[in-house]
Amino acid sequence: MSAEIERASAEAVEAARQSDQFAVILAAVQAAQVAQQQGHGCQCQQPRQRRSAGEVAAIGAGVCACVGVATAALLAVALAAVAVGVSALVVLFLVRELRKR
Length: 101
Prior knowledge:
The chain is mainly alpha-helical. It has helices at 2-38, 53-100. The chain folds into 2 domains: 1-40; 55-101. Helix content is 84%, strand content 0%.
């Protein structure tokens, strides 16, 4: 009788282990099903929407305007530098002429 009890106890322990494994497998399957129902978790695989022609034209116009402003600013700085250089030379020549007298 004790052998039967030991065998029944061992079978009960083995059934408990198997039920734990089945619970883990079932949870994994359910998680996979939920993930499939919700769609892809990663949005990086979705194709990007193309910009309309108006958006592209607006971006191009903005870039051109920025380049134009930057060019005008650099041109103004260059002209100011030339003006300062020329005026420095004129003052230098005037000082030399005044010292000669």
